[in-house]
Specification:
Blueprint (H helix, E strand, L loop, with lengths): L1 E6 L3 H14 L3 E7 H7 L7 E8 L1 H10 L9 E8 L2 E7 L1 H6 L7 H19 L2
Antiparallel strand pairs: 1-5, 2-3, 3-4, 4-5
Helix pairs in contact: 1-5
Length: 128
């Protein structure tokens, strides 16, 4: 259910490569949640650096949303980047596994297509 890759790249290199790969695959980075910063603003210290990228391909999103509006609870796709300058992990919940919970076999093809791109984006971002 979880796909992970590790890298020694810096957060800045990961960010740049992930955004470039997303654009090449017609995905957009909707937003990035910096959990370390967010928690700090709430008075909670987190030693782990953790950023969550929300990514989406609008054409693919439209296909699954028109099948079942409840799928909006699983969108957009997320790629987490966490660790420290010594090494980072990129992780995502696999779309094919998440979509099984909706009991809609007709969205399996879209889930497979999106998953292949997400996995490739993560690989591109982790390349050293």
């Amino acid at each position: 259910m979880l796909h992970q890759v590790t890298t020694k790249r810096s957060l800045e290199e990961i960010d740049s490569a992930l955004r470039d790969s997303a654009a090449r695959h017609q995905f957009g980075v909707i937003t990035v949640h910096d959990l370390q910063d967010t928690l700090s603003k709430k008075g909670v210290s987190l030693d782990l650096q953790c950023k969550v990228y929300e990514v989406c391909n609008p054409v693919q999103a439209k296909k699954v949303l028109e099948t079942d509006g409840a799928i909006s609870t699983a969108l957009p796709c997320r790629i987490s980047v966490y660790g420290s300058p010594e090494g980072y992990t990129l992780a995502t919940l696999l779309p094919t596994e998440m979509m099984k919970g909706f009991g809609r076999p007709e969205i399996e093809t879209v889930a497979k297509e999106v998953e292949a791109v997400i996995v490739q984006m993560m690989s591109d971002a982790a390349k050293e």
